[in-house]
Structure formats: structure tokens, C-alpha cells
């Protein structure tokens, strides 16, 4: 089949998220200007550069108690910092609990019973015990076409790696089995890997 997005796909469910999959999940922690912590997952997330290390995530909807966006973007606009955790299989239920559309003053760490720890280079909390956490300073927020679409870019200023995930000097994903987002309500877990050398390596 072929369809133009503006004309509609004619299917029972939008296939776009299932096409661009699997996607890593960025578990984004922020703090508002009053010092309240927020934690929310975003599956439009990825690394975008090595030197300096940089990441991005996109927020694609709005809450009624925020001006055209969600808590994460609003907090980052105010403070200029955020932290990204990598979600392991064991944290599936906790991650999902933090996706609830809670009021802006809600502390999702407390809501989901998640232990927190302070960041080192920014004024923000992180998920204690996450396989990896990336402390970030905002570089830019890009307004995208659409009612509430924003891409947030940040430079990584500090990286936490859980010791048991380091094997022979490598960050070993099979030690924690990262969770990935597919389409619809589907998710996947990375349990197996293989090595592939590029031509010329």
C-alpha cells in the first residue's frame, strides 16, 4: 500500500511508530524552578553526536496545565538542564508508571516508588541504579511543524555507568537488557547482540 500522511492511512491504527522501530527510550528527569522533580519516558530519543557527546528527544503532545507542551520541555526551558536514563527490562513497570499524565506538581519518582540520586554536573535528580544516566545541558529547543512538537537537544556533561554493566572495559547491554519502543502498545527487549565490522575497519 501507499498513503500520503495528510490524506490518512485508512488502517485501524497509525503504522508510523511501527515503521520507525525499535526506538530507545529516554527516561528524562527534570526539575522545575520551584525545585520539584519530574520523570517521564520519551521514545523519540537518540544520541546525535560523539564530540562533544550530544543527545536529543522530542515531545509531541501537550498537557492542559502547560502552555502548549509537557512538563519536561517546560522545566528544561526554565532551568536549562535535564538527565537521561537508559531503561532496563527490570524497570519496565516503573517506567510505564511515570508516563501517566499527572498534574505538573507531581513527583513521578515518588509516584512510582523510584529511588533518586543527585546528579554531579547539573542541578537535577537521576534514577538511582539505572544502567546509565546522561547529565545534559540544554543547547537548543527546536519548534517542529505541528501543534505541540518540540525537539530538545543537550550536550552531555556527565555520564554514570552502573559497575555491573561494565565487562572487560565495555558497556555490555545484555547485562541489563534495554527496553525499546515499537509501534502501538508493543515493546521489545534486547537480549542478544552480534558484531559486524564495516568495510575498512
UniProtKB/TrEMBL annotation:
Q: Give an example GO molecular function.
A: FMN binding
Organism, per UniProt?
Rhodovulum kholense
Q: Which residues form the Flavin reductase like domain?
A: 18-173
What's the protein name? Flavin reductase (DIM6/NTAB) family NADH-FMN oxidoreductase RutF
Pfam families for this protein:
Flavin_Reduct
Return the SUPFAM superfamilies for the record: FMN-binding split barrel
Residues folding into a coiled coil are none
Q: Which domain of life is it from?
A: Bacteria
Amino acid at each position: 500500500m501507499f498513503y500520503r500522511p495528510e490524506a490518512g492511512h485508512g488502517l485501524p491504527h497509525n503504522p508510523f511508530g511501527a515503521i520507525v522501530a525499535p526506538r530507545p527510550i529516554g527516561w528524562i528527569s527534570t526539575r522545575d524552578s520551584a525545585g520539584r522533580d519530574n520523570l517521564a519516558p520519551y521514545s523519540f530519543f537518540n544520541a546525535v553526536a560523539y564530540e562533544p557527546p550530544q543527545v536529543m528527544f522530542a515531545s509531541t503532545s501537550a498537557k492542559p496545565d502547560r502552555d502548549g507542551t509537557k512538563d519536561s520541555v517546560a522545566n528544561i526551558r526554565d532551568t536549562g538542564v535535564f538527565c537521561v536514563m537508559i531503561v532496563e527490562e527490570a524497570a519496565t513497570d516503573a517506567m510505564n508508571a511515570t508516563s501517566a499524565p499527572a498534574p505538573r506538581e507531581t513527583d513521578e519518582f515518588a509516584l512510582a516508588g523510584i529511588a533518586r540520586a543527585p546528579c554531579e554536573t547539573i542541578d537535577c535528580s537521576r534514577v538511582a541504579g539505572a544502567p546509565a544516566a546522561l547529565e545534559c545541558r540544554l543547547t537548543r529547543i527546536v519548534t517542529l511543524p505541528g501543534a505541540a512538537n518540540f525537539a530538545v537537544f543537550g550536550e552531555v556533561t556527565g555520564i554514570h555507568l552502573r559497575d555491573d554493566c561494565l565487562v572487560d572495559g565495555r558497556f555490555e547491554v545484555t547485562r541489563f537488557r534495554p527496553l525499546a519502543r515499537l509501534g502501538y502498545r508493543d515493546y521489545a527487549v534486547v537480549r542478544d547482540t552480534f558484531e559486524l565490522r564495516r568495510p575498512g575497519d
